[in-house]
Design a protein that fits this description.
about 950 residues; about 20% helix; 19 helices; alpha+beta
Amino acid sequence: MSSLSASAADPPPFRDPALPLRRRVDDLLARLTPEERLAMLHQYAPAVPRLGVASFRTGSEALHGVAWLGEATVFPQAVGLGAGWDEDLVHRVAEAVSVELRAFHRHRPPVTAADRAPTSLQAWAPVLNLLRDPRWGRNEEGYSEDPTHTARLGEAYCRGLSGDHPAYLRAAPVLKHFLAYNNEDERCTTSSGLRPRVLHEYDLAAFRPVVAAGVATGAMAAYNLVNGRPCHVSPLIEDELRRWALPTGHELFVVSDAEAPSNLVDPEHYYDDHVESHAAALKAGIDSFTDHGEDSATPVGRLREALERGLIDETDVDRAVRRQLELRFRLGEFDPDLDPYTDIGPEVIDCSEHRALARHAATETVVLLKNDGLLPLEPARTPRIAVVGPLADTLYEDWYSGTMPYQVGIATGLAAALDAHGGEVIRADGSDRIALRSRTTGELLCKTPFDVDDWGQGVLTLRAADTGRHLSLKDDASLVADQERLKSWEIHETFRLEPAGDGDLRLRSVLTGRYATVDPADGRVTVTAETPDAAEPWRRELLRDGAAEARTAAEAADAAIVVLGNHPLINGRETEDRAGIDLPETQQELLRTVAAARPETALLVMSGYPYAVDWADRHLPAVVWTSHGGQEAGHALAAVLLGRAEPGGRLPQTWYRGDDPLPDPLDYDVIKSGWTYQYHRAAPLYPFGHGLSYTDFSYSDLRLSRSSITQDGTVDVTVTVTDTGPRPGSEVVQLYVRALDARYDAPRLRLVDFRKVRLEPGESREVTYRLPAERLAHWDVATGTFTVDPGGYEIVVARSAEHPVLTAPLTVTGPPPAPRAAVGRRIRAVDFDDHAHTVLVDATRTGGDAVAPADPARPATLLFHDVDLTGAVRVEVETAREDEGPGEARIELHAGEQLLAEIGVPVTGDRHTWTAGTAPLTAPPDGVHDLRLTLHGAFRVVAFRFDAPAGTR
């Protein structure tokens, strides 16, 4: 690494904005010393005073508002924005977020490490992980279960963050989390098994269009493993992400997730020491190490030692630093006089325009799931409305929310809207008020009664009746009711009340698992007891029956709104998946109680997740869903419930029925397991794309510009949509395709385009889509490319994935696909067409995938369709086997039912050490066959090939 000294007389070339960006970056890089370059590999890159280079930090959270930096405008959660199906809205929200981020960067000191660097303009958003499993603890952070929908909204968010200046960025969007990250439980050690079709058609498909559009500046690697290899050393970073970015002219700046580089050693044990693991991450494409918090010495020291040991070289370091410097130039750091965003002032934070946008966004993302005529409520007909439930007038922040400057809950919003009509809101949160009295001292816990919120699975929060503040476990094990909101990495405010006999209860901390005990000498309460026998018994005194209060409120009202849902930091959040999709039983009982007293009851679910609300769908006249909608949620919901605004949202993911046995959370094979609307066979409760309106729409005149296209052709699809109802409204016109008689396991339906249109009563509009044939493609495992098969397809215009309204046939012409060539060609084991009882694993630490039996005691099967075995006389199989282990280790190969060969698997001593075993075919087949490999025992197979007799082809 050479370095240049700056001239004192003339400004160095990197200060000259007239020069090409790359030349400026190269000049600055050359002036940095080797040690200065190494230091830039940490999240906190120090200043270089001799060059006038400021300190720099990566990463500000900006998912649906600027987070963790103080009060800022809070918009609906990402899953809520996904429900809007509105790219323009998402773009406007991101624009507002980036404007506020600029204000924080320039005018507010950072909340943490204020002496290290200003607030970063690198925005760690959006999240493009697909909402495959609705139990994912971070479901609220993604847009959709569909890759096309996710990519479209992700691109819009990136454009809004970046701004529209040709040279300078307002903020630098970073895509999270690469790749296949959709579970929280044991997330740092679980592996997402992605067969090639799932990899390319599903998980990569959400990232590819956004990167290719040139609107992302970076990506964050995910905590999990993919096919047995940690994402932070995945070859997909270079082979896919950066390959897509090449035509854009800018490289992606890839950052690690927090502490993930250290995870490579512990808990993942993928490398023996941290020097080796940090070196591997750098070589794999990680440019900045978010590791050890503000302590840059430890990770930089590891990288320095890696350089000394020859595990990395100077070019590896330069490559990463060059990417960081390019980003900093684009953010205007070195051209403050030319940066078009430097004039943004602090007054933009939570300004009136952003408040109005927050209300608009919350309004546009409300989804009407069911309506038998109860909604919209008319103040003249229903002047008294009961608003009931734990979320009746309370708004919650999730971990990546900003701090709300104010909150308008649903009851408050409805009361304000009804006031002009002389209406009234009757409020009841449905919580029991109890006193917990010590059996030892007779004193009340914290000398106050508590209102109890039950979040399911026995997890409770206790709010002091006099202050409304939550009971909290302190570091000294004492209990104090002093927390206004729950928002910390470890939640200290959740408890269980467990039976203690004789009607008494024990108070147990969810966080520590310990029980409350009372010192008989001074009456001090501490949560220190390790066993139930050592716990203090408490007598529970019911002071207010929450269900009875809710019933009374419903009886006194003309209609009731029951607001149920989740707390974003309890029973499902980062590090914790949900156990199921049911509402807490106490919430369901509250709903049934209110509905029995007031049949005119609507359920409003406010959540970051889908719920199985089967009972409500059967028994209530109306069901509504909204995400945690931010500071203006109450005004927005009031407008929709009273009909001043249309429910313009549509579901971004499937709502499954309560009795639907969902696949295993770690089964990432959406094709075989049946995840999402594309492959799930059972009828959902509410399908992907579903959402009702207060008006009616009709579809007519579906036309294709041509009835057939070639494999690289294009067709225009046009349909007319008419508002046939009495009100203006919004409709999301959804375009799906279906392959007919496919040779592969094709999706039941696949979204290829959508458009949100707003129509006045009686208005009609033609909607035209340009549909290139490539959107009909699937990943062909035989050729390792996307392929558009010739044959029949159906174009489907729909109101949801289960509500088609018009269809038209389309034929793709072209030569039929050839059988899979096998003789003289290496076939990867992962390129199967079907499988059973397998697990996908890494072939080496740096690249390649292999297959192993999921359970060595149970045979695993790989099936390859239409394999041309003409001329084959022997087979070679590449395997790895660590040790003898129990039982046999062998592979059987069958063509149809005919046994072709059987090969024993030798011990290689390491899972990444491979050997090739060969065997003649017992009866050499001719022609095309379905080939089946059966794996017996504990070993891995990476590839196989068939050979013809020597001297032939």
